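Same chain as my last thread, 372 residues:
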Amino acid sequence: MGRILAEDLLADRDLPPFNRATVDGIAVQSTALMTGVDRFDVVGVQAAGMTPIRITSQDQCVEIMTGAAVDGSLDAVVRYEDCKIENGRATLLPGLMIAAGQNIHPEGKDKNRGDLLVDKNRVVTAAVIGLAASIGKTSLLVKKLPKIAVISTGDEMIPPDQSPTPYQLRRSNGVVIQAALVKYKVSVDLYHLNDDPKEINEALEGYLKSYDVLLMTGGVSKGKFDFVPEALEKLGVVKGFHKVRQRPGKPFWFGGSQAEKLVFAFPGNPVAVFMCLHRYFVPWLKQSLGIDAHCFSIATLTKDVVFNVPLQYFVQVKLTINAEGILIATPFETNGSGDFSNLVYADAFMELPVGPGVFKKGDRFKVWRYDW
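reply #2:
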């Protein structure tokens, strides 16, 4: 469940594999009524899974249960409600009409042998697993997931199970990323680096050899202790960009190496980490696995938002469906990218473009969801 299928699943036989009764009743020849036959001798009772029972004349029928195979000598099934059975004879109710194919699901109606049932590059869901079981596929080929290291930085950050001094903080960014990626079946290894250039250089050199992707938090701005960008470039990671015209998450750094290793280096503020993860990394992950990277919805603002800074603004919103069935977004007031308390109550970030300054109630914008 949740992995990405790497092979097509084909029907190993026709579906359904036989003419299948869709109701409980009697199987008859539809032409019998045209010749005046409305009473039938019951020649047998057939349950699902049994070898089909044949008839040899139009005045015969077979009691048949839902899901049972209908023999080629029969071409219609009459519901029990539309007939009366006494002493081994079935009589149709007056005025009843019978059509060929009635209450029968024909062989191959859904799929023929060799037809595509499930295409690759699709998330393995319960429905996919059910189809796989129906064709005897007891193991599935799935896409390999990238090996990921999550690395937090900062002398002031201590493990969550320790008591901080008045000027220290407990580490949360790494475990947030780790928890957010569980739904994508991605497991990560957590590391922490202090603000020491030598330690950062040596550690990153090892991580780049061992992992496909590094997700980093902190140490990417312009402070005197922000050593990450320089260390990465010294190690051959070519900068794709550094800084994005957005709030939160402006110092975001991204790059890659010739060995096809990628680095997403997010700023250290918790809300910025959370936003950048869902706005940039998750769509990359999905696209790299070959599945639809459409991770956003469109929602309507429930009230005005004022933001006069010339940056793209990601505002935390609560999503609901109104009486007209429209997705609406109610913004939260926050105290900046260090205030992550509202993330518990919000569902998404609404992406407001650079420029207007005032975003009006009723305007519609992208929302990047992170609710479960």
